[in-house]
Amino acid sequence: MRPRRSLAARLGDPAAGPLVLDGGLSNQLAAQGADLTDPLWTARLLRDGPGEIAAAHAAYARAGARVLISSSYQASHEGFGRAGAGRAEASALLARSVELARTAADAAPAEVWVAASVGPYGAVLADGSEYRGRYGLSPRRLERFHRPRIEALAAAGPDVLALETVPDTDEAQALLAAVAECGVPVWLSYSVSGGRTRAGQPLADAFALAAGRDQVVAVGVNCCAPGDVGPAVALAARVTGKPVVVYPNSGEEWDAGARGWRGPVRYDPASAPAWAAAGARLIGGCCRVGPETIAELARRLGPG
Asked: Where does the Hcy-binding domain lie (predicted)?
């Protein structure tokens, strides 16, 4: 069902509860049997298997997600170009990511919003550097990289742009500059470790970049350990006065040598009401958090 009101209006409604985000797109696609070994990762399927992406979005909508995040996290003109796509085709594939999420949203019985994912520069490199940041590029250079993909995504009509998994304040500044004229609201979400960005900057300084910017409708963290969420929610709310967005990983850790996940699952939907009480208005999951967990999250948070 296409939303009757903007996401900002929904987040600002004091009588409404938090909205449930979806979970990890990659793990759901893998569960469906999709091959994600390509450098484009999930974005490869925009070209070669859009039906798989549509099915994954639909699974999260059925689970109770009220915001679906597009499959454009690792998508870029440069990445598609290396796969043989021209710029016009690359722009069309970026737009398709929004269209696929919108189709699933429109088929849901409740209001469902669409967030167009704008992943960090490091994600496009496909070498894990989005978890380090500090790429050696200036904010101006990063802005030039992000602007064309943001323009293509914004033109497709998402409800919000998700500036997500941002590892440092240099890239946050670049992204905020790149979206300034796009006409679409955004949320800004950092990948963190403890009380700092992945690049080591204090989170208070990172969140402060969003303060006073009307275009930013929420600020928070994602793709982090569940234990990092509680302190980040309180800090983001205090520093910015804005609604907070949180969607951590399962808590498992990626073993690059073994090419697999290890350790226990630490994501517990029972923590979500406390996050909501501290100011979180958008709550979901990232890597390894699937539809079953999102369904439990929706049960605990209510219909939204």
From this structure: 7-301
Q: For 134-174, how does the pLDDT look when each residue is reduced to its tens digit (9 = 90+)? A: 999 999 999 999 999 999 999 999 999 999 999 999 999 99
Could you please report the per-residue DSSP string of 209-237?
A: TTTT-TTEEEEEEESS-GGGHHHHHHHHH
What are the CA-CA distances from residue 126 to residues 6, 29, 40, 123, 199 (Å)?
33, 18, 8, 5, 17
Percent of residues in the chain assigned helix, strand, coil, to nearest 5: 45, 15, 40
What is the CB neighbour count within 10 angstroms for residue 13? 11
In this predicted structure, what is the pLDDT of residue 256?
A: 55
E strands along the chain, which residues?
A: 19-20, 67-69, 113-118, 160-166, 186-190, 192-193, 196-197, 216-222, 244-247, 253-255, 260-262, 280-283
Residues annotated within a binding site for Zn(2+): 223, 286-287
Residue ranges at the known binding site: 223, 286-287
Q: In one letter, which amino acid is 13?
A: D
Q: What is the pLDDT of residues 55-86, one digit of tens each?
A: 999 999 999 999 999 999 999 999 999 999 99
pLDDT of residue 40: 86
- Assess whether pLDDT exceeds 70 at residue 294: yes
Query: How far is Cα 220 from Cα 279, in angstroms, rounded to an integer?
Result: 10
* 35, 62, 126, 286 from 122: Cα distances, Å: 21, 32, 7, 17
